[in-house]
Amino acid sequence: MRLLHTSDWHLGRAFHRVNMLGAQAGFVGHLVETVREHSVDAVVVSGDVYDRAVPPLAAVELFDDALHRLAGLGVPTVMISGNHDSARRLGVGAGLIDRAGIHLRTDPAGCGTPVVLGDAHGDVAFYGLPYLEPALVKTEFGVEKAGHEAVLAAAMDRVRADLATRAAGTRSVVLAHAFVTGGEQSDSERDITVGGVAAVPAGVFDGVDYVALGHLHGCQTLTERVRYSGSPLPYSFSEHRHRKSMWLVDLGADGSVTAERIDCPVPRALARLRGTLADLLADPELTPHEDAWVEATLTDPVRPDEPMARLTERFPHTLSLVFDPERAPDEPGVSYARRLADRSDQQIAEDFVTHVRGAGPDDDEQAVLRDAFDAVRADETVREVAR
């Protein structure tokens, strides 16, 4: 069976104020053409279809168009909700849409109930594990302590239990939206940290033939059977080295996996440039970036006059301007934001405690801080779902 694995469409999202709806529509057209050209048997979409719980109307219309075009090809599509989606909204009408071959899986209670598709070699069971917010699903899965690993492990126990009841030789595919250990992050994924640990080991998914992951925006191979497709379009400058693509996966009669990357059309290249304003304006080696979307980091010790206006004369698509004067690390002018770079909320809070009283928090105090951050994140998730 030939699968097309994609995820993280983020319909409705902009890129530094640039409307991406046209590029997203271009991707949908490319997806449909790829399905047709490569004789794809099933499409899997591993979450974050939309960029927010209540998407703009234009994004909903594009999603509707995508579903109609895929259904028109007669190729089944299995789709789960991600942490950016409203599971209830995305899942509205799922029972009716099933009849058109579009299988929306947004209810955590249905993790162990697969969509079963067949080919000449027998059945393939597709299990949809929507994004599982630990604080909201721990009761459903009977876990004592809310955590990503615990709830995903419980969901996979249901998958393996169902798979054990099926005919010998039944192949299996799991769709999941999670941060799996070994994956490389970018700046455009929403933080899903709980209990100080967001990542789950790839071993959680043992026992199935292919795991189609969503959440991280870079296309990645964690194992031959566990892969991220990544987002089809860039949504932050941290993705400037990404090759945007989808996975074309052939699932053999014996459950073997071979995969090929299918490149996605990207509207414009990304470039991260760093240096003094004078150097950026004069360096001939930067000529290839003149038509790119640019993030420029200026290292001038004194902020130059009208830097954006001057940059856009050479780089008309400059979207982000950052000032990072080159100073010694111990100079008083080093910015607060720079000192906090790459530090988690938990680390920042612990540093504050150390600064105030001269000693860092002990184990119990660290646990209190961690529980407080978890409660805030869970409350934000509940309020977003309820919107």
TrEMBL record:
<dbReference type="Pfam" id="PF12320">
    <property type="entry name" value="SbcD_C"/>
</dbReference>
<dbReference type="InterPro" id="IPR004593">
    <property type="entry name" value="SbcD"/>
</dbReference>
<dbReference type="GO" id="GO:0003677">
    <property type="term" value="F:DNA binding"/>
</dbReference>
<dbReference type="Pfam" id="PF00149">
    <property type="entry name" value="Metallophos"/>
</dbReference>
<dbReference type="GO" id="GO:0004519">
    <property type="term" value="F:endonuclease activity"/>
</dbReference>
<keyword id="KW-0233">DNA recombination</keyword>
<keyword id="KW-0235">DNA replication</keyword>
<dbReference type="GO" id="GO:0006310">
    <property type="term" value="P:DNA recombination"/>
</dbReference>
<dbReference type="GO" id="GO:0008408">
    <property type="term" value="F:3'-5' exonuclease activity"/>
</dbReference>
<feature type="domain" description="Calcineurin-like phosphoesterase">
    <location>
        <begin position="1"/>
        <end position="218"/>
    </location>
</feature>
<keyword id="KW-0269">Exonuclease</keyword>
<protein>
    <recommendedName>
        <fullName>Nuclease SbcCD subunit D</fullName>
    </recommendedName>
</protein>
<comment type="similarity">
    <text>Belongs to the SbcD family.</text>
</comment>
<dbReference type="GO" id="GO:0006281">
    <property type="term" value="P:DNA repair"/>
</dbReference>
<dbReference type="InterPro" id="IPR026843">
    <property type="entry name" value="SbcD_C"/>
</dbReference>
<comment type="function">
    <text>SbcCD cleaves DNA hairpin structures. These structures can inhibit DNA replication and are intermediates in certain DNA recombination reactions. The complex acts as a 3'-&gt;5' double strand exonuclease that can open hairpins. It also has a 5' single-strand endonuclease activity.</text>
</comment>
<dbReference type="InterPro" id="IPR004843">
    <property type="entry name" value="Calcineurin-like_PHP"/>
</dbReference>
<comment type="subunit">
    <text>Heterodimer of SbcC and SbcD.</text>
</comment>
<dbReference type="InterPro" id="IPR041796">
    <property type="entry name" value="Mre11_N"/>
</dbReference>
<keyword id="KW-0540">Nuclease</keyword>
<dbReference type="InterPro" id="IPR050535">
    <property type="entry name" value="DNA_Repair-Maintenance_Comp"/>
</dbReference>
<keyword id="KW-0378">Hydrolase</keyword>
<feature type="domain" description="Nuclease SbcCD subunit D C-terminal">
    <location>
        <begin position="267"/>
        <end position="355"/>
    </location>
</feature>
<keyword id="KW-0255">Endonuclease</keyword>
<dbReference type="InterPro" id="IPR029052">
    <property type="entry name" value="Metallo-depent_PP-like"/>
</dbReference>
<dbReference type="GO" id="GO:0006260">
    <property type="term" value="P:DNA replication"/>
</dbReference>
<dbReference type="GO" id="GO:0004529">
    <property type="term" value="F:DNA exonuclease activity"/>
</dbReference>
